[in-house]
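User: Teach me something about this protein's shape.
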Amino acid sequence: MTQLNFRKPHILMLHNRYQYAGGEDASTQAEINTLKQAGHQVTLIEEHNDRIKEFSYVDKLKLFFTTAWNPQQYQNLRSQLKTLQPDLLHVQNFFPLFSPSVHHAAKSLKIPTIQHLRNFRLGCLNAYLYRNEQICQVCVGHNPWRGVLHRCYRNSLEGSLAVWNMITVNRSRKTWDRDIDGLITPSRFAAEKLIEMGINRDRLYIKPNVTRDPLINQSIPPLPERPTFLYLGRLSPEKGVMTLLEAWKRLNQPQWQLNLVGDGPQRESLETFGQEFGLHNVTFIGHQPTSQVIEAIKQSTAVIVPSQWYETFGRVVIEAFACGRGVLVSNLGALSELVEEGKTGFLVVPQHIESWQERLNWCGNHLLDMSKIGQQARQVYLEKYTPEINYQQLLQIYQSVLR
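Assistant: First, the predicted structure itself:
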């Protein structure tokens, strides 16, 4: 048993990076940074989905089976665990290249394990609870075979079968109960959905995602004179960017600015929409490093999160709060937990374009009010979401699991 009174535990962090970088990748790195700054030894083992592009046909065929249980990754990790001898394995994302077998590798050596859950992959084939541009919960609480019929994973029958197989195999062998000592999710909303999917409530911990303080020993930057709105995130249908562009088109404020930071499969169609309707005050900036993201927030009037699916948290909301900026978010999922109407931002009906148009118009014409909202948002960040507070929450979870 690890003696926490004498030293801080050595954490082995394991993460499968996504093809398009997003909030999960950023949150993983932020947690690693927080732990290291607190004096922990942290070892990171990573895979990247870009590697799949180099797979042969046979390799891709094998992936069908290894997504559910990868014996090679099991052996590799078991060997690394023997060498590294960490106190705890913290798995951020195992899908698809690691597989849940990594938890069994740790369990076989009596090393406690934690699984972070920042999406709904354990009960939904596309992990979003979103299909045909609307929320879908038909698989919640059931075997997700319907997701295969609908080809919910990237509109692929083979891919959907692979994810269904991963979920079904590991439910059958009770991986989430037998091999995992704790599971972390970032919001109450996400926790309740995961419990509906069969996750053990007694092993589920709630901890917000962490983001660093960008204003240490600095005051909140003033709002730009020209109303400037910012979207940060993946450019894909569930994120609601097309709804935002429709509202922006109707807003018809050519002197105002909308910046879109991020990349994704919908970028081309979004850019085409902007060109067709002459939205010259919309700029697609693409993926940016964290430092540039923070600068973009500081130079904005408000940050917009128009998601059409159940966000499990909303990291960008806390990044905006940290910079002293209010937010406009969909009144949906965990986003509703983060934002207090009229105090730190506004809750908007997700698919109601006129509501987005009206709220954008109000924010752009009430800059003094938006400045006050930004100050209140900054105070909420200092009270709830700083790295110091987040570290204490994470350490309590580690201590509970290690005990």
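Now, about its shape. The radius of gyration is 21 Å. DSSP finds 16 helices and 14 strands in the chain. If you'd like, I can walk through any region in more detail.
User: That's plenty for now, thanks!
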